[in-house]
Amino acid sequence: MIDLKQLRDDPDRFKTGAQRKGVAVEIDRILELDAKRRAFQTEIDALRAEQNKLAKESGPKIGQLMGQIKKASGTEKDALEKQAAELRAAPARLKEKIQQLEQQSQGIEPDLNALLLQVPHPADPDVPVGKDASDNVQIRAWNPTGFDAAKGFQASKGFAPKTHIELMESLGLVDFERGVKIAGSRSYILKGAGMRLHQAVLRYAIDFIADKHGFTPVSVPVVVREECMVGTGFFPAGREQTYHIEESTRGGGYDMFLTGTGEVGLMGIHADEILDESQLPLKMATVSTCFRREAGAAGRDTAGLYRIHQFDKVEQVVICKADEAESRAWHKKMIAIVEELLQSLELPYRLLQCCTGDLGVKNADMVDIECWMPGRGDLDKSGRPTGAYGETHSASRLYDFQCRRLNMRYKGDSTEGKTVFCHSLNNTVAASPRILIPLVEMHQQADGSVRIPAALQPYMGGMEVICHA
RNA sequence: GGUGGGGUGGCCGAGCGGCUGAAGGCGCCGGUCUUGAAAACCGGUUGACCCGUCAGGGUCACGCGGGUUCGAAUCCCGCCCCCACCGCCA
Question: Backbone phi, then psi, for A167, in 5-degree steps?
Fold first, then answer.
């Protein structure tokens, strides 16, 4: 949610912001509705003030009259009753008028709110303007010693790589067919060392961020109320991407939604709270199962573990003071944490500065991290993939966009007694099984076995290599 | 699923038609006292919105929505949530 006051003060900023993100919104319509609503409010407030004044003035008089009426009789009583009725009439007229105005004013609000929720957060000026992911800009790339993603797998390792599908099926780590039997397309079963490797990465990632970087590990609900989805900025835009549990149609009070990321639960924790400045920054990490409908992705990445409906993800979230420099510093830090993790897993990766068209509505800035996946990319003459980067992480910087929607604020020395919306940021730590793709493809050996990087071995009961049974 | 109890400010907790934006306590902030601290005492301490250049003025909010009333935290209706006990399940 953007700040309506800011929109009022500088509508052009939001107009160009939306345009650069390729989002169509009716800013002028918002301004118009807002002006109307405020006019109504001013009028209603004035009438209420008058009503309150009258109630204070005539209230005691009415009380007095009522007392007299009880004792009186005949014409005297009639006269008193007439007086009382007159006193009551003025506030009653006001009340009627107020109700009329309120009705008109309330008619505006749903439209205004719906439109306001659609206004995207403008990208920061240093974010490159672009249409879609193809306009993203590489920041830097990293390779493990002895490997160069630019030259390809075979040039560095001396043999042609298998895809993660070939490797994992032949090693018995995955069963796609039966996964589909149970749950339909984009479903899978991990088994044996495949399942253990999945768990190992997740646990390693949680320990990594908690122990090395001081994030608080938390578990959060993955089935949440709609407010949580709206509050975190996933609704209304991303409604089609989420699984919807229609509890209300079967007698429940409200519907529920399956979260597509642990970010929703983490951000929801302190919704509607006023935090003390000394509590900030909040650094939290969670492992949660993530559910995505992948609506609109028909035909894309249909094979393998890349694009699936259900996966598990370790997610990091930082909630900090409303300070741009601090937000930017945390963004860098959260990216650095991932780089450190990927390096410890010996996985080549690159950082991409996302362009305005790829940011989504809620972000002011976003950096994607892509791991090199030998089994992706264009095919060579013999029909073998030549390798390509594939997105594994996404680091978002949102200013107060989410916290405003979630009503998450703080107070302290630096706020001069005011309550201020917090800033929030989030980044993946590790999402599995997608991270298993580069993991098995990069660490495959000529004989079709897969080497387990040293960092993960303790989480695999000391196993060093996954071999054929 | 059944029965009962309850949702009030940062927290605890009183109020149960006007004198209540809300007693009292805790916490927090400032002051007095003190070599310093503690204690004691004094004062302050909810949020959102609107109008206004400022000073300031106004409105709303006691779970949420509606109603009764000249006037609602207080009465009525609907909804949501929480707690306790029982049942059922893990």
Answer: -65, -50
| ipTM of this predicted structure | 0.81
What was the pLDDT predicted at A2? 87
Global pTM reads 0.90
A293 is catalytic: no
Residues with Cβ < 8 Å from A179, sequence gap 6 or more? Answer: A187, A188, A189
Q: Is the pLDDT of residue A8 over 80?
A: yes
User: How does strand A282-291 pair with strand A216-218?
Assistant: parallel
Q: State, as a whole number of angstroms, the distance between the CA of A215 and the C1' of B80.
A: 34
Question: Which residue type occupies A104?
Answer: Q
Nearest of A215, A345, A388 to residue A286 by alpha carbon: A215
- Return the structure tokens found at A291: 């559910």
A62 CB below 7 A from strand B atoms:
yes
Task: Find the Å distance, CA of residue A419 to C1' of nucleotide B43.
Answer: 24
pLDDT band with cut points at 50, 70 and 90 for residue A142: very high
- Determine which one of A20, A186, A196, A292 is catalytic: A292
Residue A70 has pLDDT above 70, yes or no: no
Task: Assess whether pLDDT exceeds 80 at residue A397.
Answer: yes
| Residue A57: HSE in the Cβ half-sphere, 13 Å Cα cutoff | 10
Tally helices (H) and strands (E) across chain A: 13, 18
In what order do the strands lie in the sheet containing A420-421?
A: A274-276, A409-411, A420-421
Q: How far apart are CA A165 and CA A171, in angstroms?
A: 10
A42 CA vs B54 C1’ separation (Å): 20
Question: A13, A48, A307, A350: which is the annotated catalytic residue?
Answer: A307
> Which residues, in sequence order, are CB contacts of A105 under 8 Å at separation 6+?
A37, A40, A41, A44
Model pLDDT, residue A60: 67
- Computed over every residue of chain A, the mean pLDDT equals 90
In one-letter notation, the amino acid at residue A393 is H
Q: Residue A76's pLDDT is what?
A: 73
Cross-strand partners of A244: A257
Is residue A394 part of the annotated active site? The answer reads yes
Which residues is A352 bridged to in the sheet? A138, A368
The answer to whether the beta carbon of residue A54 comes closer than 7 angstroms to any atom of strand B is yes
Distance A449 CA to B5 C1' (A): 64
